Amino acid sequence: MASVKLVGIRKIYDEGGHRHVAVRGLDLEIADGEFVVLVGPSGCGKSTTLRMIAGLESISGGELSIGGRVVNHLPAKQRDIAMVFQNYALYPHMTAYQNMAFALTLRKLPKSEVDRRVREAADVLGIAPLLVKRPRQMSGGERQRVALGRALVRKPEVFLFDEPLSNLDAKLRVHMRREIARLHKQLGTTMIYVTHDQVEAMTLGDRIVVLHQGEMQQADTPTALYQRPRNTFVAGFIGTPPMNLIEGDLMGEGFRFRSSSGGFELELSSSAGALRRTGRRVILGVRPEDLQLVLPGQDVDSRSVISARVEMVELLGGEAIVHLSSGGDELTARLPAPLPATGGELRLTPTRVHLFEGDTGDRLDA
Predict the structure, then answer these.
(1) Cβ contacts of 16 within 8 Å, gap of 6 or more
(2) Distances (CA, A) of 35 to 1, 6, 128, 287, 302
(3) Is the terminal CB of the chain with fewer CB neighbours within 10 Å at N or C?
(4) Do the bridges between strand 291-293 and strand 345-350 make them parallel or antiparallel, or are there none, so unpaired?
(5) With left for phi above 0 and alpha for psi between -120 and 50, is residue 110 left, alpha or beta?
(6) Cα distance between residue 86 and residue 168, in whole Å
(7) In 35-98, at which residue ranges do the beta strands (DSSP E only) sit?
């Protein structure tokens, strides 16, 4: 096991005189035994970062160390890492046993040691019956387990995962997430996992690193990311459905928010952060589950209520995702089902709000 440290890591592609900066000065320290997830939209630099750690991409600038050893110029085979790819990358003419044993055989380990490691990994992953099968005889989930086993037998200092579950169906992805989490708990090995799926990130990571356009937006625990996003990008990316983000202005000593479209006004709690920005353009954030339904006859302050028209309802059994409009503003609420008959109009009150700077999108402590 080993720690991983990135200091000012950059990746620049120069194609025909055109420079494209894929990763911009990334600083990140991953502790020994930690499970860190790199997440972000396509093109954010997450897979490029993982490939630089693996030694599959050269580093344009900065310093990368694994276990306290600088590895910038070390080839992949000398970094003591194992990588699990999106497409499994199994040899089709080999059995599962042969695929898992291949790297150990190349290292000229004794046959008894190779056999012991393969069968131990197969027992851990529950794939002992698959050892005699070839990839074409296996399901997607079984092939992914074999790919995990091939990495596991090497007993590396660091495991790297490059979107390993994206080719699986939804039910199997949930099952394999549990398998990977169980594997990390059992082994205690440092793991770095890349995904575009923020649900995967929230489920698996001890810490999550959110990337956008090659820059780190926030690195924090899943709970901290969700409850205190650093900016509007993180706020809108983390969470399903995402946070409602509404542009507007602070008025009346900064304790009242008016949306730019004039769809609604909302009384805010007293806040020094809000006071300093009276009259300034801000962005109000509200999580869908923090919008509470106001029932007829319920005693609430009318200044803290949003009236909205129901546009669509997604029923999810015990709850409903409700898409609404208030003037020109669109809102999403997560409400208990069934909804009361309201004639298409709902009154909602936010139980918790977030404020962000209108120009930069950075969080205000409000």
Answers:
(1) none
(2) 12, 16, 26, 26, 46
(3) N
(4) antiparallel
(5) beta
(6) 10
(7) 35-39, 61-66, 69-70, 81-84
What is the per-residue pLDDT across 4-19, written as a single tens digit (0 to 9) for each?
999 999 999 988 778 9
How many CA atoms, within 13 angstroms, populate the side-chain half-sphere of residue 27? 1
Token pair, residue 103, equals: 């790297």
Q: Tokens 């580093």 correspond to what residue?
A: 59
Q: Name the token pair of 156.
A: 């590396």
* pLDDT, position 232: 97
Q: How far is CA 142 from CA 17, 103, 130, in A?
A: 44, 20, 8
Residue 366 is predicted with a pLDDT of 47
Element of type H or E holding 149:
helix 140-152
In the chain, the amino acid numbered 126 is G
Q: Which amino acid is at 343?
A: G
Note the pLDDT of residue 327: 86
Rounded Cα distance, 253 and 277, in Å: 9
pLDDT at 91: 93
Is the distance from CB of 189 to CB of 156 less than 8 angstroms?
yes
Q: Find tokens 């079984």 and name the residue.
A: 142
Find the length of the chain. 366
Whole-angstrom distance between the N-terminal and C-terminal Cα of the chain?
41
- Global pTM value: 0.89
Q: How many CA atoms lie within 13 A of 186 on its CB side?
A: 12
Phi, psi for 24 (deg, rounded to 5): -115, 95
Weakly modelled stretches of the chain, pLDDT under 70: 1, 253-254, 270-279, 342, 366
Structure tokens, 165 = 């579950």
Residues ≥6 apart with Cβ < 8 Å to 214 = 11, 21, 22, 23, 24, 26, 44, 45
Q: Which is nearest to 207 in space by CA: 49, 35, 47? A: 35
- Retrieve residue 239's tokens: 């969470």
pLDDT at 129: 93
Please give the Cα distance from 351 to 113 (Å, whole number): 59
